[in-house]
Target: Glutamate-1-semialdehyde 2,1-aminomutase
Amino acid sequence: MRNTTQSDQLFARAKELLPGGVNSPVRAFKSVGGDPFFAKRAYGAMIEDVDGNAYIDYVGSWGPMIAGHAHPQVLQAVSETIADGLSFGTPNPLEVTMAEEITRLVPSCEVVRMVNSGTEATLSAIRLARGATGRSKIVKFSGCYHGHGDSFLVKAGSGVLTLGLPNSPGVPAALSELTLTLDYNDFDQAQELFDEYGDDIAAVIIEPVVGNANCILPKPGYHQHLRDLCTKHDALLIFDEVMTGFRVSLGGAQELFGITPDLSTFGKIIGGGMPVGAYGGRRDLMKQIAPAGPIYQAGTLSGNPVAMAAGLATLKLIQRPGFHSELLDKTNYLCDGLEQAAKDANIAFHTTRVPAMFGLYFREGPVESFADALQSDAARYGRFFHVMLDQGVFLAPSAFEAAFMSIEHSKDLLDQTIAAARAAFASLQSA
Ligand code: PMP
Model:
């Protein structure tokens, strides 16, 4: 068994001082049971805890660490930048370079605004959509998570789903009534909703691959269907690419699926591990943001030079030719290996994948909807999670979060993960 003495002591202290002992809910291991470990350091594909246990990491700080933890080029960019000061409150050159990079890699983003988290990005994009259209209603999908903004905590995924709180207390009913929800991948339902409310809808916001209800892929043509409905009714289509951006393809899910959204939101990878978000899109929309236009949005630390340096260094690493196809190969290799191991142990198990992002389900496939995802045996996932953790593999501590691959996950580490899964499946069989 792992020694967890230091982590346990820290968690006892933390529980007195932080809600649930953590600063973000899923970290607390509530859905898988047990207590979290406290990280001391991370390098490449590995994360090490304060008791000296090392784990192959498939959480990757929930997405940013696609190039691996503590990449020397990212660390160097950060240390060179901090030597000149941490924050200026006046424009700095790296903000311009970052905007050039994002708009070049994601052509639908003609103009971009940097913020400090994914939540800020989605909140700001919705305000812009409402301001620009003069409409109040927004549409989201059950199981999708767009951060903790009031309007999004309606049938939400991620931690709120993990904890069974998809509609949070504290959100005024008058506001949540403006959020209409749809079932992901249901073509007719979207059509019917637009038939009824189309001209009141400011925007449809969607995770183009749902990573906050495990990992659900869009059916062929689904995003185009939404694009057509939005265009027809002058509603805006917002791709929330906080998770998928720069991950599933260099140009994000919009490049992978060939869709042009009106607005996009980003986070995670563009900060390289520092707190960053961004939203961007059509010039005629973005020019309505203050000070160019009347829709207000601001941030003391937005465009922070250290965060820009970490993000730019990461964006440079992922532009190496073949980077994303290598990630897809790794993702397929692992998922195929896990499926084979489950089959050999006669365990009902299914994986879904896109490059560098995958879902693990304790049920047979296919999984095409939020309802399908919910049918995964979460208690079984919890047991699997712990046997894997004890063997040095850190998966998401929730059955409803996607897993992430980094470029540093070597074949050897993937083989170790599959071997650990064989043991874990065998233990489930006997449980
Ligand atoms: N949108 C999506 C798709 C996300 O996955 C997340 C976070 N996991 C967010 C928004 C919110 O980002 P943040 O946690 O940085 O506020």
Notes: The longest strand covers residues 201-206.
